[in-house]
Design brief:
- This protein is α+β, with helices and mostly antiparallel strands and 155 residues long.
- 39% of the residues lie in helices and 26% in strands.
- The protein has a single domain, classed as Histidine kinase-like ATPase, C-terminal domain (Heat Shock Protein 90), CATH 3.30.565.
- A 5-stranded antiparallel beta sheet has the order 1-2-3-5-4.
- The longest helix is centred in the middle third of the chain and has 21 residues.
- The protein is globular.
- The chain starts with a helix and ends in a 6-residue tail after the last strand.
- Magnesium ion binds next to helix 3.
């Protein structure tokens, strides 16, 4: 990382990093959320917050791996909150309301054999977030914005 970027982050009291997520890359699936979890542990964020961030980032990362071509996960930590934006290029979601329903899944047989496809990812992201937004454009991609407050009571 560039020294200038580090200095800027120090002055702004902000840690941020952008991660790339490759579609269909099940071998590396989960690595981004593990890295974020390790970082949060290292800097002493409370376990109850880490747990929520880990669930939300893991589910968002897996959805990019399973359904999109590629994506980025932008992570930002300030003294008040953790903000995660996951932006992918892929098929998009036609009916967001349906996709948000517990149990709804278009996972393939192969994905189900790997243990995915319960249709619980998006509902769990929402449940573990203090702020949650999802937007999508068919044939373009999907974007999630997840915010978890560091002082939140939502556990
Ligand atoms: N990034 C995405 N791009 C395209 N479609 C998506 C994306 N994320 C979710 N979807 C669609 O929304 C559905 C519901 O997603 P959700 O994460 O809730 O469940 P799932 O991934 O099918 O199963 P689980 O997360 O429990 O393993 C998916 O089956 C898929 O059709
Ligand atoms: Mg999912």
């Amino acid at each position: 990382m560039k020294l200038r970027k580090l200095a800027k982050m120090a002055i702004e009291n902000r840690i941020e990093h952008s991660f790339v997520i490759k579609g269909k890359d099940f071998g590396n699936a989960g690595n981004v959320s593990t890295k974020i979890k390790d970082l949060l542990k290292e800097i002493g964020i409370p376990p109850s917050i880490i747990r929520r961030v880990a669930i939300a980032t893991y589910e968002a990362e897996m959805n990019v791996v399973m359904y999109a071509n590629h994506g980025t996960l932008n992570f930002a930590l300030t003294p008040q909150k953790i903000e995660i934006v996951v932006d992918d290029r892929g098929p998009g979601i036609e009916d967001i309301e349906l996709a948000m329903q517990e149990g709804y899944s278009t996972a393939t047989e192969e994905m189900r054999e790997m243990g995915f496809g319960a249709g619980m990812g998006l509902p769990n992201i929402k449940k573990n977030s203090d702020e949650f937004e999802i937007t999508s454009e068919v044939n373009k991609g999907t974007k999630l914005r997840i915010v978890i407050y560091l002082d939140s009571k939502n556990e």
